[in-house]
Design a protein that fits this description.
Blueprint lengths: L1 H12 L7 H10 L4 H8 L3 H8 L9 H17 L21 H4 L4 E2 L16 E2 L11 E2 L9 E4 L8 H7 L8 E6 L5 E5 L3 E5 L4 H10 L18 E4 L1 H6 L8 H6 L7 H8 L3 E2 L7 E9 L2 E8 L8 H4 L7 H14 L7 H12 L3 E3 L10 E3 L44 E3 L4 H4 L3 E7 L2 H6 L4 E2 L4 E4 L9 E6 L7 E5 L2 E4 L19 E5 H9 L8 E4 L3 E2 L3 H17 L8 H8 L2 H4 L1 H20 L25 H26 L5 E3 L2 E6 L29 E8 H11 L23
Parallel strand pairs: 5-8, 8-11
Antiparallel strand pairs: 1-2, 3-4, 4-7, 5-6, 6-7, 9-10, 10-11, 12-13, 14-24, 15-25, 15-26, 16-23, 17-22, 18-21, 18-22, 19-20, 24-25
Helix pairs in contact: 3-4, 13-21, 14-21, 17-22, 18-21
Length: 746
């Protein structure tokens, strides 16, 4: 009989009444709970709880989760009746405050990761829900910082997935990786941290601010790799904070060109008198203030100054104009998912490689019990290595003996770059109504995934036998590869219209005319297409490994988690994915900025691997500063670009063999096709919801494609006729149809 009663109880509980979605959200926020905390307690996904609170498309809990959720809401409604959201809290809890109207309309910037991406939520992610600070009377001292510590002003209960989670692992960084420093009208300086936390800052000068950051603020981020170093705390200074600490709100033209304040500026002299040092880049938009390390203890603080153009609008949008609390949330999400910014997105992308593969590690104890620093296997080490002559960009010291105006051809120079190819449309294509562009998600990140790259110096080999698993640069003639007949599977050949396809061996899509230098993935693809390759010579790297795998995984997870927060998940069907992508940036503009910054981190980090001279009086044939870095590796950059271009060409070939459709234009990771409809589904060969194996597939994951834009065929012909360029690359303008100037390929 008891079993029957249990079943009856379970049946009743399965229909437990629940308040409307808006009320569910109000109750959670009134108690200062995050989506992650509720999801963890109920053992469901964060997105599931978000769906229960969605006003537009609500979902309902079922089974035991519904019973537990109803129990939670019942208890919360007792604490916070509909007209009493500001009821007195229990002793020693954060003061609940009304949620701002803006926050009632969108989800908070919380850290999550889609299980379909295979990534768990970062433990140090901030809960970045916007909540105003409570009156100063509610503040209490920060834990563990002593009586002189800055008082904490909790805007609401801290999230288990935010800074508090970091503190559980390392209390040194309990307040998060960074803080936005601002000053109010009364001169009070406040530090806005991720998670809605606000700290009072007692520092009266810039040196005192650095001291406070290192001794009391508890800011920073744990290392990303065992042998690595913890991230230095980052302070983002608003214009009000700049004025408070004697710094200009903007740089003069001379200072902007120099990238720093002059050495005789008052603030620079203050730091020097307090025995603080600046790196070679000085006190500029991104500054590093430090004292020499003592043993394993580092004393270093980084500054980011948005009004000095530290946050490039091309990648960070309008982040520099955000209020302090919102800027702290945005940068906190980026820091928790990628890493604490250390400069531009390009600099951060390169620093992330090193953070995941530190150059040294501690050795095993010797006979005397002491450890010493040794090379960390799988890293690029501490010393730079020379590139091969064919990999050297123009002006490199290895080329100093060349005649001054000598132009190197394909047989002298490795030229692996992204696609910029277009062709005139055929008569049949002109009868179609639309041009539809598709774009590969995180294309260069996908190209880095699983790629074997060189770790050490190259070895020169004459008449080598090609090895697809050996990274390097190969001088080989691929002009015999005929795209009219290629192998598309192990024993399957396809007859194609080769004139309608770009060559996979050159960025402009032209067929090579003789021997040229190629990276390993390009030569391997010629073999894959069914053709023999016989290199004349090569520069190969026997010391190699999958150096970029961890880098790719970190950035992939950051991208997928942020897109999931914007409503674009990895499990959506093709039509659902296209619908979710429509207007996704407007759902949360701040998160959209994070997506942009993550993508810029990929491209910029790879670009830094072959950084060119940046002024400083450089002359051709002389070394420049970047050459002194172990991470100056043009061969790795070339290999990633080579593989990315080959990956795209493989999909184009599979699509042509299966459908008879050929691209009209290709630009980097964007491909344009003529179609009768306006959607990618009007020409992509989906059957029963399944894409062509090895072809284009719609989805959010890196390597899959999204809709880039649609224009009419008449638009394309009119643009080409207007500029008198039948091969104008329409992929450059397909997104919004705006053509600002003649296409010059730049």
């Amino acid at each position: 009989m008891s079993e029957l009663f249990d079943r009856v109880d379970a049946l009743i509980a399965s229909r437990s009444p629940l308040p409307p979605p808006a009320e569910r959200r109000r109750l959670r926020q009134a108690h200062g709970l995050t989506l992650d905390e509720v999801a963890s307690a109920l053992q469901v996904r964060r997105a599931t709880v978000s769906g229960w609170e969605s006003v537009k498309k609500p979902t309902e809990p079922r089974g035991p989760e519904r019973e537990a959720y109803a129990r939670l809401l019942d208890k919360l409604v007792d604490l916070y009746p509909p007209d009493a959201t500001t009821a007195a809290p229990a002793e020693d809890t954060a003061v609940p405050v009304p949620v701002p109207e803006r926050e009632q309309e969108r989800e908070p910037l919380t850290v999550s990761a889609d299980p379909a991406a295979g990534a768990a939520p970062p433990a140090d992610g901030p809960d970045t829900q916007a909540r105003p600070a409570v009156p100063a009377t509610a503040s209490r001292p920060a834990r563990g910082t002593g009586p002189a510590a800055a008082p904490r002003r909790p805007a609401a209960k801290k999230a288990a997935s935010g800074p508090a989670a970091t503190a559980a692992a390392d209390p040194r960084f309990e307040n998060g990786p960074l803080a936005v420093i601002d000053a109010d009208a009364g001169g009070q300086v406040l530090a806005y941290c991720p998670g809605g936390l606000i700290l009072d800052v007692p520092a009266k000068s810039l040196p005192a601010l650095v001291d406070w950051t290192l001794t009391e603020a508890r800011l920073g981020q744990p290392r990303l790799s065992g042998p690595g170093k913890d991230a230095d705390p980052l302070l983002v200074l608003t214009e009000a904070a700049l004025e408070r600490y004697g710094l200009p709100g903007a740089l003069t033209d001379e200072e902007r060109i120099a990238g720093r304040l002059p050495e005789d500026h008052k603030a620079v002299r203050q730091l020097a008198r307090a025995d603080w040092k600046l790196t070679k880049r000085g006190l500029g938009p991104w500054a590093r203030i430090y004292r020499p390390a003592r043993g394993s203890e580092r004393a270093c603080v980084q500054l980011c100054i948005p009004s000095w153009h530290a946050l490039d609008a091309r990648h960070w949008g309008t982040a520099a104009q955000l209020p302090p609390a919102e800027l702290a949330r945005l940068l906190g999400v980026y820091a928790s998912r990628v890493m604490t910014p250390r400069g531009s997105t390009a600099v951060t992308g390169l620093e992330l490689m090193t953070a995941l593969h530190p150059p040294t590690r501690a050795s095993e104890p010797g006979a005397d019990g002491r450890r010493h620093s040794e090379h960390n296997p799988g890293s690029l080490g501490t010393d730079p290595v020379d590139c091969a002559p064919c990999e050297a960009p123009d002006g490199h010291p290895l080329l100093a003996d060349l005649p001054r105006f000598h132009v190197r051809g394909p047989a002298e120079k490795l030229f692996e770059e992204a696609y910029d190819w277009a062709r005139p449309m055929t008569d049949a294509e002109c009868t179609r109504r639309h041009l539809v562009g598709i774009d590969v998600n995180m294309a260069f990140a996908a190209g880095a995934n699983g790629l074997i790259v060189g770790l050490g110096a190259p070895t020169h080999v004459k008449a080598p036998v090609f090895d697809a698993k050996l990274p390097g640069s190969w001088l080989v003639d691929l002009s015999h590869v005929d795209l009219s007949r290629v192998k598309i599977a192990k024993d399957t050949w396809a007859d194609l219209d080769g004139a309608m396809l770009p060559s996979p061996f050159t960025p402009k899509g032209d067929r090579p005319e003789g021997p040229a230098w190629y990276a390993t993935p390009t030569v391997a693809y010629a073999q894959e297409l069914g053709y023999e390759v016989r290199p004349v010579e090569a520069w190969v790297r026997h010391d190699n490994g999958r150096y970029l795998d961890g880098w790719y995984n970190r950035l992939r997870d950051a991208y997928l988690a942020t897109m999931a927060d914007l409503g674009v998940t990895a499990d959506l069907p093709p039509a659902g994915f296209l619908a979710a992508m429509h207007g996704y940036k407007e759902r949360d503009p701040e998160l959209a900025v994070v997506v942009s910054a993550v993508k810029a981190t990929v491209k910029g980090g790879l670009g830094k691997l072959r950084e060119r001279p940046r002024g400083e009086g450089w002359r051709p044939g002389r070394p420049w500063r970047a050459l002194a870095r172990p991470t100056w590796r043009p061969d790795i950059r070339a290999a990633v670009i080579s593989r990315t271009r080959v990956n795209l060409h493989r999909k184009i070939v599979k699509h042509a063999a299966f459908t008879g459709q050929y691209p009209v234009a290709v630009l980097s990771d964007c491909v344009v096709y003529a179609a009768d409809g306006t959607s990618p589904l009007d020409f992509l060969p989906y059957r029963d919801g399944k894409p062509l194996p090895g072809g284009f597939k719609l989805g959010v994951n890196p390597g899959l494609v999204k809709h880039e834009g649609t224009q009419s065929v008449l638009w394309g012909e009119e643009v080409r006729e207007r500029f008198g360029a039948p091969e104008l690359n329409l992929a450059r303008y397909i997104k919004d149809g705006t053509v600002t100037d003649v296409d010059n390929g730049e």
